[in-house]
Each structure stands twice: as C-alpha cells, then as structure tokens.
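ok new one. same drill as before - structure tokens go in, u give me an amino acid for every spot. 217 of them this time. try not to just spam alanines like last time pls lmao
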C-alpha cells in the first residue's frame, strides 16, 4: 500500500482533547505516548505555564485547541523557537527517566514491541519505533482516514492490560492522550526516523534498557 505525506488541500479529520489530532487518508504519522508517571506534575505545570506565556506574548489564546493550525500561522522563526523551548524540552523531560520506568525490563518492553508488530503489513506499515523506559515513539504509515486514533488506543489498551497483569497490579498505566503528528515530507520522515534511533543514545541508555527498530532502507 502506498502511504502519503500531509497534503494541505486534502480532506483532514481534526479531533480535539488536550491536544489536536489530524488525520488524512493513508498517511504517515509520528506518534508518542508515555507512562502515566513519566513527567511529574510540578515539571509539567512549569512547562505549561511557560508555554502559555509564550503563546500569549504572540497574541495566541493559550486555551487553543487546534495546535497544528496555530503552527501553520506562526512564522518559521517562531516555529523553530517553539520547538527549541517546548517540544524539545518536553522530550528531554521524558528522557530524564522519571517514574518507575518499568519498560526497562525486557519482558515488559517486548509486550509493546509484539503489539506494534502484530498487524504490521496489514493495517499499517511500521517505519521505525523505540520502546524507552517510560515512553514509546512510533513512525508508521496507517491505512484509511480516521483509523490512527483507534489504532493507538488499541495498542495502549492491550499493552496496559498485559503489563499490569505481569506486574500484578491494576489501574492507569499510560497517560490517556498521545501526541501524534502528520508527517509532511520525505525529509521529515527521515528526521523522525533518525530521532527514534538516536533517542536511546541521547538518553544514555544501556543495551537491554530499550527496544528500537527501523525498516531497512
């Protein structure tokens, strides 16, 4: 199946939670989800306060729902600054290794990997993924339009149930909402691919503390 990059002229399904989610037909996505304890409330509150002040200083309502539309409106310089001040910092918070980080355990990270691979080549085409100690990054082409959110929900629900069972516990394992991004260009696809493969090195993880894979070129 042929997957596509973001097309501003194509039909786009947009849904909102704490984040906006854009979906197009047979598109490439970069998706991140994290464990419920991966970022402390104090650190997250600080990050959100500084982000909201930055947006307000540019005449943008901090209560905005459609983030991707906001980014379309920002200048190239502001987009780069937002990425440096907030997106990169949010990822750095994850890489600091907060929370229990139970996915360091190979038998638990393998549950996530097996779930990702289960329908690879049927419902979606994996390009790359990494299972970090407290979060997961996935780069994939996903069939249909409107299927990405449900697929992500299925991955999280199944793995949470299996991991909780292995740990002998119940309750929330993953943070409810995930971050997803429609990939815009072949260069962006390669950028996300490299980010995924370099993530364990950046976080200074040892062999066996993560699972990473990328489709052969």
């Amino acid at each position: 199946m042929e997957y596509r990059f973001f097309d501003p002229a194509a039909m786009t399904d947009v849904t909102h939670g704490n984040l906006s989610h854009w979906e197009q037909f047979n598109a490439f996505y970069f998706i991140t989800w994290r464990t419920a304890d991966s970022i402390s409330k104090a650190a997250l509150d600080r990050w959100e306060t500084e982000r909201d002040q930055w947006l307000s200083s540019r005449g943008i309502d901090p209560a905005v729902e459609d983030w991707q539309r906001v980014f379309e409106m920002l200048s190239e310089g502001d987009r780069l600054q937002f990425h440096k001040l907030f997106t990169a910092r949010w990822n750095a918070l994850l890489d600091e290794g907060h929370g229990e980080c139970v996915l360091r355990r190979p038998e638990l990270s393998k549950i996530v990997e097996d779930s990702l691979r289960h329908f690879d080549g049927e419902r979606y085409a994996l390009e790359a993924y990494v299972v970090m100690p407290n979060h997961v990054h996935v780069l994939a082409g996903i069939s249909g339009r409107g299927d990405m959110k449900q697929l992500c929900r299925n991955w999280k629900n199944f793995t949470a149930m299996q991991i909780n069972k292995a740990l002998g516990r119940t309750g929330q394992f993953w943070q409810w909402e995930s971050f997803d991004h429609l990939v815009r260009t072949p260069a962006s696809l390669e950028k996300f691919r490299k980010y995924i493969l370099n993530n364990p090195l950046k976080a200074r993880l040892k062999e066996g503390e993560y699972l990473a894979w990328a489709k052969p070129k």
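Residues 13-38+97-214 form a domain with the Alpha-Beta Plaits fold (CATH 3.30.70.1290). and btw Residues 17 and 165 are 28 Å apart (CA to CA).
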